[in-house]
Amino acid sequence: MPANKKYLSNNWQRFAKVTAGFFGGYIVTMTFHMALAYIFPHKNVIITSSFTSIILWVALIITAFIAKNGWKIWALYTVLSILFSVLIYLGNTYTPLN
Fold it and tell me: Where do transmembrane segments lie in this chain (predicted)?
């Protein structure tokens, strides 16, 4: 029995979901953990991020495939990665007084 056409997405939506899930999710995961490392500069953050990064990346992949529109997921992942990149920049340029 073939699938119902209303539940299938077109090729561009499928491409957007796959690329957003893998590449966009990876970029968001890495920028999030780098920002976390700048906010809390401890060894434990780096060690913990090696485990939680895989969990977060898989969750972002699943989120991309559940979404209706792949381009909106790309936009969301781009905004999140820019936000985390700004936090990294601010954490890198901020030098507290000793």
Answer: 20-40, 46-67, 74-91
Do the beta carbons of residue 29 and residue 56 sit within 8 Å? yes
- Give pTM, 2 decimals: 0.81
> What are the residues whose beta carbons fall under 8 Å from the beta carbon of 67, sequence distance 6 or more?
17, 73
CB of 20 closer than 8 Å to CB of 77: yes
Helices (H) and strands (E) in the chain, counts: 4, 0
**65/19 Cα distance (integer angstroms):** 10
Q: Which two tokens stand for residue 82?
A: 């820019």
Report whether 39 contacts 91 (CB < 8 A): yes
Task: State what percent of residues in the chain have pLDDT above 90.
Answer: 48
